[in-house]
Write a structure and sequence with these properties.
Largest sheet: 4 strands, antiparallel
Number of strands: 8
Strand order of the largest sheet: 1-2-3-4
Number of helices: 0
Radius of gyration: 14 Å
Low-confidence stretches: none
Number of domains: 1
Length: 113
């Protein structure tokens, strides 16, 4: 995290693999992001804005990608790109990672939304 002018840079994660696509919750108390912690493919995580409370909220085995998450404007749902290899589509889920609903239908293998 940093100021708008690039000063006061604070590292929030300390991971030897990918952490990316951060987005703030509408109330400004959480950050949602994708990470590759113990998986070969990205999963969705949340953390407090100071970097504490890192919590994995998706856990799909195999070559499935859960990436580029963001909150809806009211902060009651999470939207993200999900898919097997390159057949990604958009999904909505509850804040705890449950109740997945396809926003767009999965594509034929090799196409991404």
């Amino acid at each position: 995290m940093m100021n708008n002018d690039g000063t006061n840079l604070v590292q929030l994660t300390n991971n030897n693999v990918h952490d990316g696509f951060p987005n703030f919750s509408p109330d400004g108390n959480k950050i949602i992001f994708e990470a590759w912690d113990d998986s070969n493919y990205p999963e969705v995580f949340t953390m407090n804005i100071d970097g504490s409370g890192r919590t994995q909220i998706t856990n799909v085995p195999g070559a499935y990608w859960q990436s580029a998450p963001c909150y809806n404007p009211s902060g009651t749902k999470i939207y993200f790109s999900a898919g097997f290899n390159a057949d990604n589509h958009y999904v909505m889920m509850d804040l705890d990672g449950t109740n997945w609903v396809n926003i767009t239908e999965p594509n034929t293998f090799g196409y991404a939304e």
